[in-house]
């Protein structure tokens, strides 16, 4: 049964955020809100968490997992970014974008695309997510909470708790966060390739 955390959307309760971070460190798989939609999240090195996300979403090994980062300095530890790409990403963060980039040695091999050796990264614009990342001190390994054969992600914490109670360890609820996933931009080839149009404006990448 998943624990249910009711978190204030503008002033997250420090004690509650600390409890959620502790559960992640203990290998919990959580559902949490972002600036685009709900996501599944676990500890960066959690093999169990990765396999559970794959099972819930029925993902194959070509799926790009995302490292949700607190800031640009943290993001830079996990991906290689040249000057032109740096400026483009810097101008778009925090925001509803996921960027695919070559992974550094800090990224566990099991998280990297098996052929491209790339990984997704993002810096969300969401108060609760930022508070959690600051408390955790490292990125959250994440994937959009979009269930197989469904067109839109779930938007309500109580609904997620009701439907996924048996496969999650915790649900973080801070209100509705929308249904549109992030815009995905692939920079792994040096030029911007729009992989998915979502919540983030694609104009600057076209």
What does this structure look like?
With 206 residues, this protein is α/β, with parallel strands linked by helices. It has one domain: DHBP synthase. The protein is built from six helices and ten strands. The protein has helices spanning 14-25, 47-57, 72-75, 83-90, 127-136, 157-164; strands at residues 3-6, 30-32, 39-42, 66-68, 97-102, 118-122, 140-144, 170-173, 183-186, 193-196. It has a ten-stranded mixed β-sheet, with helices on both faces.
Elements, N to C (H/E): EHEEHEHHEEHEHEEE
Q: Based on CA inertia axes, which overall geometry fits?
A: globular
> Which structural class is indicated by helix and strand composition?
alpha/beta
Largest sheet: 10 strands, mixed
Quaternary: single chain
Q: Summarize the amount of helix as a percent range.
A: 25-40%
The total strand number stands at 10
CATH class: Alpha Beta
Strand order of the largest sheet: 1-8-2-3-7-4-6-5-9-10
CATH architecture heading: Alpha-Beta Complex
User: If you consult CATH, what is the topology?
Assistant: DHBP synthase
**CATH-wise, what's the superfamily?**
DHBP synthase
Low-confidence stretches: none
End-to-end C-alpha gap? 45 Å
Number of continuous helical runs = 6
Beta percentage is 15-25%
